Amino acid sequence: AAALVWFRRDLRLHDNPALWAAVRSGRPLVCAFIDDPDAVAQLAPGRASRWWLHHSLAALSRSIRQRGGQLVLRRGDTTSELVRLCGETGSSEVFWNRGDNPTRDSGDTALAARLADRGVKARGFASGTLFNPATHLNGSGKPYRVFTPFWKACLRAPEPSAALPAPDRLPGAAVTASDNLEDWSLRPQAPDWASGFSQDWEPGEDGALNRLEAFLANELADYPQSRDRPDEDGTSRLSPHLAWGEISPRTIWHTVRDHAERGGSFQGGEKFLSELGWRDFAIYLAHHFGSLRDENFNRQFDHFPWRSNPAGLDAWKRGQTGIPIVDAGMRQLWTTGWMHNRVRMITASFLIKHLGVHWRDGMAWFEDTLVDADLNVNAASWQWVAGSGADAAPYFRIFNPVTQGERFDPQGLYVHRWVPELTGLSGKAVHAPWTRPANELIAAGISLGQTYPAPVTDLKTGREQALDAYQTMKARA
Ligand code: FAD
């Protein structure tokens, strides 16, 4: 009999405990990935993520083949396909890594029961987070709602266990019919709006490990200062690799630590690992409190008077709001599938507060267009910005996109890169073109409303409307 390894958002051979357990069973392996269009619990990935998935599956398939195995692709209902594959290959056990999506994990239990009914044993392993989300509770035995004490408790606990190497051989895979990856049409066809993604990204675990090495060598030491600067390449850009499980958080943890021990700098290491801690925290919150995608974590926000603003939402999506740092961020997102964290906060805050649009609409656009879209992290982050989340920024602290731009993109280089219409303005002037004298705009070749939009909302009015809405919520709640 064969052993079936079911790949999900763990598209890697290194540090893959399910794969190792299957290899150790000594049986021939069948490696499979199932694209289940209807898996509610798995929540279908957005369009940018599907582009990534295409390339990641191609990379995984190559690595498995190099080790003597085969990646079988199937499309259909997960349970039926797993049962079918077991029947075709004489497998009696399915090995998988429990993911980091609590909704999916509760689905895992039901799936394991359905498989057991058909005589197939499910073997689940954990590798999606640094720390087991079930373990850390506060002094009163309740889950933490605030990041800092949560993270301190994690740091007091035993370190994450060592990461596993990739197996050298994936023995004697039974040959089973597989779909052709091209036929899945995971990449956008006409128009191929993702064609530029390949310039920025190398999906797959080799790409992930290379990215980590480059980050440690070049950027880690300055990370605490440069991580907030969208005009610099100061962050790791590991997020899409993490979202698809091409690298595990504990591989990152131990590689960062080893780097320090080998005499590399650990400056920046703690800050960087604490950002990974925020990823764990988002998953932890969902584990204990349920998905943050659907409901306000702080139920007071159920009374918030959101505005219907389809024109504002549309201008935001298209990077045509007339607020330069917001437009730069939204265009970076569309063109590369990624946006700098500081700018994610600025664009999200602008949509929620100045335009009065529900955080759920912004979250949905990010889910569709980010290559790193992660249901838990994205939802927790949107609610953090909205003020409705756990340990969130208070609603009434409203980012001013102009001062944010002046502070974090002081020479306007980030805006110039994504909003070339404004290259005629330099320095701080680029962040508020509507405040510039007419002759300066003419000299810069800018005509507001013609070559670049006038602001969709006056910032002062937008801010006042947001504060009024907040008062209305408080009065209603
Ligand atoms: P680095 O700074 O190098 O951080 C390393 C890793 O730590 C990241 O890859 C990520 O896994 C984790 N991390 C960093 N910052 C955060 C954070 N604030 N919260 C949780 N984890 C973090 N991140 C996603 O991975 N997927 C999302 O869908 C997502 N949506 C977001 C939506 C909004 C509105 C905001 C404000 C943030 C969102 N983030 C999301 C968090 C953060 O912006 C990205 O993780 C980060 O920009 C990724 O770039 P990096 O890998 O270079 O980060």
TrEMBL record:
Gene Ontology MF term list: deoxyribodipyrimidine photo-lyase activity; DNA binding; FAD binding
Alphabetic keyword roster: Chromophore, FAD, Flavoprotein, Lyase
Catalytic activity: cyclobutadipyrimidine (in DNA) = 2 pyrimidine residues (in DNA)
Residues binding FAD, per UniProt: Y223, T235, S236, R237, L238, S239, F272, D372, A373, D374
Classification via InterPro entries: Crypto/Photolyase_FAD-like_sf, Crypto/Photolyase_N_sf, Cryptochr/Photolyase_FAD-bd, Cryptochrome/DNA_photolyase_1, DNA_photolyase_1_CS_C, DNA_photolyase_N, Rossmann-like_a/b/a_fold
Entries under Pfam families matching the protein: DNA_photolyase, FAD_binding_7
Enzyme class: lyase
Domain Photolyase/cryptochrome alpha/beta: residue ranges: 1-130
The protein's Enzyme Commission number: 4.1.99.3
Family (UniProt): Belongs to the DNA photolyase family.
Name of this protein: Deoxyribodipyrimidine photo-lyase
Provenance organism: Maricaulis maris (strain MCS10) (Caulobacter maris)
The organism's taxonomic lineage, starting at the top: Bacteria, Pseudomonadati, Pseudomonadota, Alphaproteobacteria, Maricaulales
